[in-house]
Amino acid sequence: MPLSAGSLRRRPKFAAPLLSPACLHRLSVPGEFAARLDDDDAAGVGEEEEEEESGRRAAAVLVVCPLGKVWRVELRRSPAGDGEAWLGGGWSELAAAHGLGEGWGVVLRLERRGVASLRVFDPGFCLARFCTPHAGMRTKDRPRFIKLLQQEDLEKMKIPEKFVQQHLTETYTNNHQNAIIVCPLGKFWRVELQREQPDVLLRDGWAPFLAAHDLSEGNILLFRYEGNMVFTVEVFLQNGCLKEYKTAALYLTDGTEGPSNAPQQSAAKVGVSPVKRKRTRRIEGTCLEGPNRKSRASPISVKVEPHKKHVSIVSQNSFTKEMTAYSIHSLLVSASASAVFI
């Protein structure tokens, strides 16, 4: 079923899959994301004076962490107008409080002006859990893992080992030969699974998936596991911003064959309203062709006369029978036999 263009709108996001030691004190963000996150009304009088002294423009933003705590962090932008921006004051304290270190990853999602939510990924590229849920309790966040594409990932990609151990049991990997990837365009891609103990690889169908979405080394992929070997994926550019895709109609895509030719409804069928269909069915029930015979007229060509009633001339005890070539031949043979007998 085609998806509307509005359904493709996503909240702006920024991904940093591999934090360096410098990122623990000052996290650089793209100017495009900073412009949407910046809240012009958030800065106070004291902060404005500090901006004049330092020659840098700063704004206070709120970062909502995984446990729900809200941190106040400074968003600074270069006065040179080169688009350089970073999270400064308050970021190092936030990183230390959550145990972030080198090799960790973060994803920021813009909630509204001046407010962003934070997801943290551990060195195993899996979504970090800062508390263990009680037995039988469902968590809001579905399992996720983040992947920075390297050269060796362009032909086949290894699913992080920690993610396989935690969420992909042997029952799934042994019984399922394929994984289904739901791309940002809403299409479904079948990718063959290859089991190499203890690794699980996405192999046949993976390279065409990357080519169809114009992905190469340096792109960032964020996978969310829906269960039953189905993954949804979000794509980020090399600078960490969410990549936007635009399309008019989205249909099923099957593996290496590319987009399948999904059957489309004819214009006549699509144009019939539910009310007209209901009226058409009523007319067919009282048509001269009988109560059990469907009208072959197009639903659009049927004219509804509200003040005229169709009267059936077929009695309730009669029945109608469709004549076929076989029935006509049998009738003629029996008639001929009767004539010879007479």
From TrEMBL:
Subcellular localization, per the record?
Nucleus
Q: Which PROSITE patterns match?
A: B3 (PS50863)
Which UniProt keyword terms apply here? DNA-binding, Nucleus, Transcription, Transcription regulation
Q: Which SUPFAM superfamilies does UniProt cross-reference here?
A: DNA-binding pseudobarrel domain
A matching Pfam family: B3
Q: Where are the transmembrane segments?
A: none
TF-B3 domain location: 68-124, 142-239
A GO cellular component annotation here is: nucleus
Example GO molecular function: DNA binding
Q: What is this protein called?
A: TF-B3 domain-containing protein
Organism per entry: Oryza sativa subsp. indica
> What lineage is on file?
Eukaryota, Viridiplantae, Streptophyta, Embryophyta, Tracheophyta
